[in-house]
Amino acid sequence: MRDALTYRRVLLKLSGDAFSPPALESGISPEATALLAVQLQEVVGMGVEVAVVVGGGNIWRGRSAPHMDRSRADYMGMLATVINALALQDALEGVGVHTRVQTSIQMAQIAEPYIPLRAIRHLEKGRVVIFAAGMGVPFFSTDTTAAQRALEIKAEAILKGTKVDGVYDSDPNLNPNAQKFDALEYLDVLNRGLTVMDATAISLCMENHLPILVFNFRREGNIKRALLGEPIGTLVHAAG
Question: Which of 37, 72, 184, 195 has the largest CB neighbor count within 10 A?
Fold first, then answer.
């Protein structure tokens, strides 16, 4: 099975709403975390090395608090990602997947500090590594964190899990005629202003030729399909 894999080490980027009930955008749903855990259990069993960056928007969005100091609001968002990371760790350990949480802000009683070489060693041993607390500094999104962490652990691709099955030219929830892209170049994403990841993250991936696969993570089995190279989602890649 490992020989058939398109990618052998990946970083999965999940926004906070991956943890909330499908009909809501807040809270943590045991069913949602269980779905993620089962899918990750399957791909780890295939020999894939998986790291995860989690958002925290289901608990707190710093951008939604314009009355607050931006730095303080962003730090609150970092703490929200730690809550999601621990929820995912619990779900993974519950299905027998050994997991480590690493945070950019030291929290010695609940997580390891972010140390790239240690993270790589965990991956080599078959453990899932969950990166939380963003970059540890304000004004940087978890998208940018995902790009930076993926590069530092030498991931072969970013798998960007969303609630839709790829990138569209407009919101498919609002426009029934929205057109899905099977593939895009990085500059297409930037020039069209498509909401794949923020511009900093896209630029970082473009400079380092790191592909991004955008797909619907809520469809069971899609993470496995992505790793086997099946035609799902939208691939963002270098020109040529």
Answer: 37
Spatial contact of 51 and 131, defined as CB atoms under 8 Å apart: yes
The pTM of the full predicted model, rounded to 2 decimals, is 0.94
> What does the pLDDT look like over 160-200, one tens digit per residue?
998 888 999 888 888 889 999 999 999 999 999 888 899 99
Domain 2-237 indexed as CATH 3.40.1160.10: yes
Q: What is the Cα–Cα distance from 185 to 240, expressed in whole angstroms? A: 9
Cα separation, 187 vs 116, in Å, equals 29
Mean local confidence (pLDDT), 213-239: 90
Length of the chain: 240
Query: Which residue, among 136, 161, 141, has the nearest Cα to 204 in the 3D structure?
Result: 141
Distance of alpha carbon 227 from alpha carbon 180, whole angstroms? 20
Q: Where are the domains of the chain?
A: 2-237
Q: Are 214 and 167 in contact (CB under 8 A)?
A: yes
* pLDDT tens by residue, 36-45: 999 999 999 9
3 state DSSP class of 10: strand
The span from the CA of 89 to the CA of 94, in Å, is 8
Q: What is the DSSP letter of 170?
A: S
Q: Which two tokens stand for residue 139?
A: 């004004």
Q: Positive or negative CA dihedral for 99, 12, 144, 17? A: negative
Predicted confidence (pLDDT) per residue in 2-35, tens digit: 557 789 999 999 999 899 887 777 889 999 999 9
